[in-house]
Design brief:
Elements: E1 5-13, E2 16-21, E3 24-30, H1 32-41, E4 47-51, H2 64-72, E5 77-80, H3 86-94, E6 99-102, H4 104-108, H5 111-120, E7 125-134, E8 137-142, E9 147-152, H6 153-163, E10 167-172, H7 184-193, E11 198-201, H8 207-216, E12 222-225, H9 227-230, H10 236-245
């Protein structure tokens, strides 16, 4: 049986881990290198590192901190933020990333997914989408959730997988930081639409939210969270024990 993954996320701005609510009101949390080490030692299955203002500021992803994070941890690392070209993939992978997450760059140039998958393999290309309900429809937002693209989300993710994305991350802006549970309706639709691993992001507030995620949307491969891990509200070893007790298989 395939194990479910628990993935902490480091949203990095100006060299520090930050967190907000609904992608707004960002506040300082911690040093990314120290936090990455903590998660690697605490049983996290993977780590996600986002340079969250790179796209909005029109610059390349910072690599100095990324290199230090990659040297510190012993779990797979997915990195995103401001990756718009194959050269961007090269930079990030040479810093020690295992997978590269694209969002705004893929919206601007969908063929980037195909080119990257051809060069590095599908397993290396992660399509991340920031999604929000607009007039009853799931729509994709760009530039860190700041810009409504008008693109219908489910069709976009399906197209991204057809182009070569080997995994998708579904970031629900509606539930981000609210701590009232994952966006199960959205996640169920995505899982029905794509044949690749789906990572759920946005809304975790308790261990029970992870139990509910994997029970109600069993096709989801992983649960990603930030603030509940950063602030010690959920300890990963405790969460995995709870999941085991609910017959959800995780790596221990």
């Amino acid at each position: 049986m395939i194990t479910k993954r628990i993935i902490p996320c480091l949203d990095v701005r100006d060299g520090r881990v930050v967190k907000g609510v609904n992608f707004k009101g960002l506040s300082d949390v911690s040093d990314p290198v120290e936090l990455a080490r903590y998660y690697s030692e605490s049983g996290a299955d993977e780590l996600v590192f986002y340079d969250i203002t790179a796209s909005a500021e029109g610059r390349k992803l910072f690599t100095d901190i990324l290199c230090r994070v990659a040297e510190t941890i012993f779990i797979p690392l997915t990195v995103g933020g401001g990756v718009n070209t194959l050269e961007g993939f090269d930079r990030v992978l040479k810093c020690g990333a295992d997978k590269v997450s694209v969002n705004s760059g893929a919206i601007r140039d969908p063929e980037l997914i195909r080119r990257a998958a051809k060069r590095y393999g599908n397993q290396c290309v992660v399509l991340s989408a920031d999604i929000k309900r607009v007039n009853g429809r799931f729509q994709v937002f760009a530039k860190g959730g700041r810009e409504d693209t008008g693109i219908e989300a489910i069709g976009w993710l399906r197209r991204g997988v057809e182009l070569g994305a080997g995994e998708v991350v579904v970031n629900s802006i509606d539930t981000d930081g609210v701590k009232q549970g994952f966006d199960l309706e959205l996640l169920d639709e995505v899982c029905r639409a794509v044949p690749v691993p789906v990572i759920a992001s946005g809304g975790a507030g308790s261990q029970q939210d992870f139990v509910e995620l994997f029970k109600k949307v069993p096709s989801v491969d992983a649960g990603l969270a930030a603030s509940v891990f950063h602030f010690g509200e959920i300890a990963i070893p405790d969460l995995k024990q709870t999941l085991w007790e609910n017959d959800i298989i995780v790596r221990r």
